[in-house]
Design brief:
Helices cover 0% and strands 59% of the residues. It is an all-beta fold.
């Protein structure tokens, strides 16, 4: 389960790919994202892409073939 800190904006493209813009870190492209579930401060649409403004840590999970991006809760015990 990869976790990405300091995410400031998530771009979701029609191809399903998602680009994470990160403050102080390199941006990261995640392929084939089915759903994005993060708190949003604002949105913008550029052509067919949607940009979600956020300020959170994002985790990426693959549940039964669906790739989901959601806010990471550091209080959740894993394992």
């Amino acid at each position: 389960m990869p976790v990405f800190r300091a995410v400031t904006r998530v771009w979701h493209f029609p191809s399903g790919d998602a680009l994470l813009e990160r403050d102080g870190y390199r941006d990261c492209l995640i392929p084939d994202v089915d759903r994005i579930d993060v708190p949003v401060n604002g949105t913008e649409q550029v052509a067919d892409a949607v940009a979600l403004d956020t300020d959170t840590t994002v985790r990426v999970t693959d549940n039964t073939g669906s790739v989901v991006m959601s806010e990471f809760d550091k209080n959740v015990k894993i394992g």
